[in-house]
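Hi,

I'm pasting everything inline rather than attaching a file, because the server keeps stripping attachments. The sequence lines come first, and each chain or strand is labelled.
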Amino acid sequence: MTKRKSAAISLPEVRNRLREAGLRCTPARVAAINCLFASPTPLSSGEIVEALEPAGFDKSTVYRTLSEFTECKIVFRLDLGDSMRHYELSDVGTHAHFKCRQCGEIQCLDDFSFEISPRKHKAVRLGSVNEVLLRGLCEACE
Amino acid sequence: MTKRKSAAISLPEVRNRLREAGLRCTPARVAAINCLFASPTPLSSGEIVEALEPAGFDKSTVYRTLSEFTECKIVFRLDLGDSMRHYELSDVGTHAHFKCRQCGEIQCLDDFSFEISPRKHKAVRLGSVNEVLLRGLCEACE
DNA sequence: ATCGCAAGTGCAACTGATTTGCAAATACCT
DNA sequence: AGGTATTTGCAAATCAGTTGCACTTGCGAT
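And the predicted assembly:
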């Protein structure tokens, strides 16, 4: 539930997560989970592909794996724009993200709270909001 | 400055906007502005391409036009994820957007206000935020 | 009004991210 | 260990968006 650095996750634990989600435990899936687990911020599909290809995993396998994970809710898929999808393990909990439109840096805003309130009452009706994304310039780029 | 339905914008007015931005007044640009003007919500590049191609405008021209408009700040480019860019005339003013991850519907949240506040004070440092995007399920899809 | 040329356009070919079809490989239940 | 439904790797396809280039056109100067 909390943010972790880069400690590895044990194979049996990964296996459990997969089996619980109804997925077979395969090397590609284990590698993908380890990859995501090791990163403090969401990774783009491209970054994950780059990380796993050297180990011999095909990019199509990686993309398929990420889709499966998303369906099974093992990971949460963020649409941060810029034609790229990002993924993070869903057990880190829901939080907003900030993306710098200049350098592309992504920050997880677990330390921020949001208040979203209708101003007039004509009330556009949103259903449920489960992703909050802020874009702008990070301190460095500003 | 306010939201409009689908009334057309006069040619001289479009011409003015373009000249003020330092752009020549060409049929493709006029068509693109009219297209954006007629829509109550941001349009994706694909939608604009589809709208203008039947009239004989090439998609590369449309993409180029949209980039120029973005540079000149005539339009604001939104990165709503889903591998697609959306555009709206910048004179509608800054406001947040909601996008349904199921049906893709986009809502402009000009009637909402946002409060974003650091919870702890360890303070992740954001620079300036100029786009707020919420994703989730709209009322219909929920 | 019309001329000249920089700016804008259409076309076709290219890129980069992602997807798909299919045959070979493999996880895992018995 | 064995059989089979699931996964995987590969190559080819797709899709949004971009680019190079020769042709056209808007518009300030004549």
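Helices of chain B lie at 11-20, 27-38, 45-52, 59-71.

If the labels don't parse on your end, tell me and I'll reformat.
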